[in-house]
Amino acid sequence: xxxxxxxxxxxxxxxxxxxxxxxxxxxxxxxxxxxxxxxxxxxxxxxxxxxxxxxxxxxxxxxxxxxxxxxxxxxxxxxxxxxxxxxxxxxxxxxxxxxxxxxxxxxxxxxxxxxxxxxxxxxxxxxxxxxxxxxxxxxxxxxxxxxxxxxxxxxxxxxxxxxxxxxxxxxxxxxxxxxxxxxxxxxxxxxxxxxxxxxxxxxxxxxxxxxxxxxxxxxxxxxxxxxxxxxxxxxxxxxxxxxxxxxxxxxxxxxxxxxxxxxxxxxxxxxxxxxxxxxxxxxxxxxxxxxxxxxxxxxxxxxxxxxxxxxxxxxxxxxxxxxxxxxxxxxxxxxxxxxxxxxxxxxxxxxxxxxxxxxxxxxxxxxxxxxxxxxxxxxxxxxxxxxxxxxxxxxxxxxxxxxxxxxxxxxxxxxxxxxxxxxxxxxxxxxxxxxxxx
Length: 438
Prior knowledge:
Largest sheet: 8 strands, mixed
Number of helices: 12
Number of strands: 16
Strand content: 15-25%
Order of helices and strands: HEEEEEEHEHHHEEEEEHHHHHEEHHEE
């Protein structure tokens, strides 16, 4: 099955050899946590308000090779970052905003500040999440973590993929049986409590619940989810697969950490303020300020005039995006890829006009994708402040579309385009499976 070709046997063999060399163990003892990147075709920016979202994983992501260390020590190296992270699982972890300035980690044998070796924060965060729910973690891991080679993972939820990988590794090493639903909550603790990012549960849900070729639908208020399989169409008494598609990832060259961008948390706060106004107007002021608590269309229409302009735009994005997800579910289940794509593009436009996220390069990239041959629909991937755009494209046109996007983006953003590896500027991807330990 092509979507399950990642990671390849050569990638698995390579990481096993690295960990075997680190630990002095045999390659047959090395376990591998595979945690794919995710895309969100529909349901942009509404998970933190309890909205309905859609997602699927792609055949790119995080690979963490590890062995149980046999003692409380955690020793980690990275394929992308310098240094070695060391800490003990019998140390009590505290949220990052309570870490003292002189707290240290080990980098290449010397003591460096947390800020200089922050790539280890997600491993510490995974331990924090497990500890905070009373799990007994007594054994550390020796591991090597690496993302898909040469790929800028901005906008693909690489942070959640990393957090999930560390959770799976620590759980495996300590023989903990943890359900995907529990791990969704654990990774939420990593990002919300340990790192202070005010996002929802879309990313980790997609990574942990998705199945190959399915569209995952998640109600972020009730935590219910379901998998929508693509249809098998009947034709002349034979089963015919739906029209083949590919997923394009088009990269902008913009890079910075989401936790450092005030725009993201500001948008979340604005959505909550809009919810307060609507709930108060509906005489539901005692409910938590999430837009999902004011979801009745009639109540929204009756009271939206009381919202200040910027809050009105945030609320309009939430309610219209929820409807796009519902319509998109039906389009996907019926094999109407053109309609599904139109909804994705409308989501992208609402992200720009109503949610007011994105930057000039991302918006230009979005607009170029809409003009590319065979593209059904496109939008930002992730928060839209950096990273990439995604598009669903007719499989037969994927290569032509990728070339078109690279050429056109180079015209409008020559400096940023020159900073991207030409072989990785626009990737043609496929749907993949969920996170797991091999």
